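Lecture 7 notes: from sequence to structure.
We start with the chain below.
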Amino acid sequence: MKYSFVIAKLSVISICISFLSLTSLSLKAEELTNSEKADAIFRQFDLGEINYPEQSDKMLAELDRLIADDDLKRRHKLVGLRCWYQDSATTEEINVAIEHASKLILLYSDPKPSYILTELLMCRGFYYNLNSFTDKALVDYNKAVDDSYKLESPRLIADARSLRGTMFSYQGEYSTALEDLITAQQIYESLDTPYWEIFNLTELATAYRRFGDPATALRYQEKLLASFTETDQNLDANEVRVQMGYSYEALGQFDKAIEHFKAAKLYWEANDDPEMAADMAVTIANAYMALGQYDKAKPLLENHKHIIPADFDAPYSHLMYALAQMAHHEGNSKQALAYLEESQQAFNKSANNRGLTDAQKLTSEVHASEQNWQQAYLELVEYNKTHAALDEKLLSDRNAEMLARFDNSKFKRENELLERAAKAREQQLAVMERNDTLQIVVIVLSVIILVILSIFAYKQLIRQRTYRQLALTDELTGLSNRRDTYNQGQLFLKQAKASGKPFSVISFDADHFKAVNDTLGHEVGDKVLIKLAEIASSMMRDTDVVGRVGGEEFLILLPNVEQGTAVEIANRLLSTIANFDWQQVAPELKQTVSAGVASFSNETTLSPLLLKADKALYKAKESGRNCVKAV
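Predicted structure tokens for the same chain:
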């Protein structure tokens, strides 16, 4: 059934949030009993024990009966569950689910942020992503992440970042995907939610495999398969088995990969899902073609190519690519190019840049086999552009080792392309000995292509070095950006833990900054942010780090500084900012900031320490702003 693998997976998507409390003891005994029964059902949903659709409809109806009309917290929780547990087997059903979620978002838009609104944003973002509306999905996911931090809900933060990280991973934005998924994993572990630790770990393993580290992915996947098998979670076990096949493929162990893919195909056939079984058949065929066994791949493709519909974007894109490989192998360049055009459209629709680069590379090779050098070169340029965009997303100090391996692979591919171009030129020279004029034209064309490719490769190296620096700097203020600030904060925290020395952070942001932008304009707002950055930087030591981590949000890292001293520093900073002559920036402008201070105690990662600082900052805001609070 179309999208059934996502529907089944949806049955274990949790939107149960731990902010609800038991009703008052003044309620009657029967109401308490009903509330307890409702909480037990919510717990079953949260543990993934409710199957869709066999049990979910019945249990949702039971919740509706048990929850009193005036029990708004549980009613909101039920609304969230109903948003997630909608039919989504076809494009039409997904569109209905999106429309339903949008109506609920309007209904619960005030107050904002709220738990129910954040949950509904995640729900609609999921359906947007399912229908390949990835830009809209990202807007909802980003809003959900921001609101979950404002609500100071670790569970909401973990759920939102897990969903966003899963989408980033599929799109090839590996650095940001790993950042989201690792953060979610740490929070799930701290909340003691073993089921969701396992669920998120599945996506984390997949991200590592896509990132170019299949050995690490396999270590996770083997543990996941053992866990799912032990608990009879057959759907999840099958999904992990497929991912293990991809990891074995990446390691060049195609026989093991085919073994896992065949087991997955049998599972989908046994569960009467021909489209997913066909998708596995295509995956097996790709593995056979990687081994050069086209005779085994061809019947698989012929027998299953009519089963996968064109609007089943991800499987269809891989089907078209596999058919193009087969056509190219058989010398049918025209048919291969037709398949490749469809595969590129499908890869673009699902924002799969990894697959798009494969299709662009094969398109260049097909044109080259037809001696259509101009089209081969143009497609090669597009391939390099797409690949360069993927490279930019990998620039992260946290992933330096994996980035180096990726770059080495990239240069190896570029060298292979140059070698192919050189071989092609030699073949042309042999033919052109019979035609001096044509010989000169082709030699000049080949030299131009080689020179352009060499210049392009050199410029790529220069760009990468520039991007590496830009990736660490906030463009407006020149301070460390969010990623670099957090990386340095994690390093300071590890040093403090190892040495026993103190480590404190100051989180501050501009008071009423939205009013500045609305009344005086964004240009004045930018000048305010630049001046805040200058003041803060001028007051800190060389060993301190001042970073901009959000729109008007700043973070100061103070190694070897105790909390009391950090509070004094924060007060001096607030006083300096409040007393600055802001009329230099704009007439009648007055600007203050609020600050929260937190110090390292026994945290193992930076995230809990930042949550403490944010909590202190919110207290400062609630106390009237232009003040310092510490926790």
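Points to note: The chain is about 70% helix and 5% strand. The radius of gyration is 28 Å.
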